[in-house]
């Protein structure tokens, strides 16, 4: 198929485990504060695993917002390209019992429909306790990462507008 692909924005994470839900919180912030045109597919994919395949098959590039399990300062921001991830710099599993994003991308590749470009906008989590609130460190990064995503989409030539506040 040679249809025009959408720009995909995917918030990954478990909303019930505090900072693990960072990607979901960022996507909710974007949806609440910005109007995206039809050629942008913005989704809270949560911990959907293989159910992400249809989304990944119709979007390119895909901007993934998630937490990352690496050494460093909790709350610090880290950007990775798909090449970085494939180089095995870090683990991309959403949770131990989920199919990792890389495996899902491989499935899409087998079907001949996969994004060429995947970018990861991540922070190191501070707390993974049971709570739907982000820690102070993650909360402090939420708007900043959301604005990076908006800027990236604008750089791709898409008109994104801030919603009018009543």
From TrEMBL:
Protein name per the record: Hydrogenase maturation protease
Pfam families per the UniProt record, alphabetical: HycI
GO molecular function, a single term: aspartic-type endopeptidase activity
Organism of provenance: Desulfopila aestuarii DSM 18488
Annotated SUPFAM superfamilies: HybD-like
Protease found in the keyword field: yes
Record has ATP-binding as a keyword: no
Alphabetically ordered keywords of this record: Aspartyl protease, Hydrolase, Protease
Similarity field: Belongs to the peptidase A31 family.
An annotated GO BP: protein processing
